[in-house]
Write a structure and sequence with these properties.
Blueprint (H helix, E strand, L loop, with lengths): L8 H9 L25 E11 L10 H19 L2 E11 L5 H18 L2 E9 L4 E11 L13 E6 L4 H10 L7 H12 L5 H10 L4 E4 L4 H12 L2 E5 L7 H10 L1 H10 L6 E6 L3 H10 L4 E8 L4 E5 L2 E3 L6 E2 L3 E2 L1
Parallel strand pairs: 2-3, 7-10
Antiparallel strand pairs: 1-4, 2-4, 5-8, 5-9, 6-8, 7-9, 10-11, 12-13
Helix pairs in contact: 2-3, 2-6, 4-5, 8-9
């Protein structure tokens, strides 16, 4: 059954996207002209929108449930960086003629699995036909009033820390675009999983927020160096990053040993799509941050130091390194 054989968008919405509410802050689900959300008196609302477009953010022909998971988890990563608890989301979806009932069923199931995992409710959106599969997720959460972690709170002398490992997603995408015989079958599958399944840093970031140790944060979408630059610029200071300190998975570390540590780490630092969290933490509070991360089985690694001045400066084995393309830009490619 193709898209044109389904009666209309209202049946699509009713059959595939109608949901019971999961959050006490959501008064109604899909079906009204707009969602009605309760705003806790002692909380600030946190809202972010992310696009996921076929051929840009994921490859054509990708499994529907994986498309759903990747798009929603990537959007929720922005709330994680702010230390916010996710409550609900809306989804505006453009469906090409090639989409059929089987695809929609799998896509809706993929969304439902993530909704259960994160405890969130789909509250509305829009559905239409178009030439390209396009998904716009608007995620909504809350955080204690005036406690959201912003980008501008870093100060000279603070450390730059990052969750998880860096570069897996970039290598996963590169392998998808052109199969690389370097990787074992298991490594290729793991890297592919990292590209299609952004990590869940929400719980650990909320506990770091509660502890007060994180002063600034951003999720890594365009690349460690590019996104670290956003932190430094917003905070009015400079930043030194040690490429040698970047946390790598076993697979990427093996590549670094065989094909060159510097080039591998440059790629890992600039490929993007990691959706890990970069954060500024006072040096005297690093141990506390590491302990909180360990409690939630999240790796946390110091990779840099905020300094007086401006710009991001990279080093490897103690020597300055020029990185000509620090990250991805949608309107000019890597730059």
């Amino acid at each position: 059954m193709s898209l044109s054989s389904l009666p209309d968008e209202f049946e699509i919405i009713e059959r595939f996207f109608h949901r019971p509410t999961r959050s006490g802050l959501v008064r109604n689900s899909v079906g009204d002209d707009a969602a009605v959300l309760r705003s806790p008196r002692t909380q600030d609302l946190v809202v972010s929108t992310d696009l996921a477009i076929e051929g840009v953010h994921f490859l054509p022909g990708e499994a529907a449930d994986r498309v759903a998971a990747r798009g929603l988890r990537a959007a929720l990563s922005d709330l994680s960086a702010m230390g916010a608890i996710p409550d609900s989301y809306t989804l505006a979806i453009t469906l090409p003629e090639s989409i059929d009932e089987t695809w929609l069923t799998a896509f809706a199931q993929g969304l439902a699995e993530q909704e259960e995992l994160f405890g969130i409710t789909l509250t509305g959106g829009d559905t239409c036909r178009g030439p390209t599969l396009s998904l716009a997720y608007t995620v909504i959460g809350h955080v204690p009033m005036e406690r959201a972690v912003l980008r501008g709170g870093a100060r000279p002398g603070m450390a730059l820390l990052v969750t998880g490992t860096i570069g897996d997603s970039g290598y996963g995408l590169r392998h998808r675009l052109a199969a690389d015989p370097f990787w074992s079958e298991g490594e290729a599958q793991a890297l592919d999983h990292r590209f299609m399944t952004p990590p869940n840093c929400n719980v650990v970031m909320r506990h770091l927020l509660e502890s007060g140790v994180v002063r600034a944060a951003i999720d890594v979408s365009d690349g460690v160096i590019a996104d670290a630059h956003h932190l430094a610029r917003a905070s009015g200071c400079g930043l030194e990053i040690d490429l040698e300190a970047l946390p790598l998975s076993e697979a990427v570390a093996r590549r670094a040993q065989i094909e060159g540590a510097l080039e591998t780490r440059k790629f890992a630092a600039t490929a993007g799509e990691d959706f890990e969290i970069l954060m500024a933490v006072p040096v005297v509070e690093i141990d506390q941050a590491l302990a909180i991360a360990r409690e939630h089985n999240i790796a946390l690694t110091q990779v840099g130091l905020f300094v007086e001045g401006e710009g991001v400066h990279t080093r490897f084995q103690g020597q300055p390194v020029v990185v000509s393309h620090p990250g991805y830009r949608h309107f000019s490619g890597p730059k």
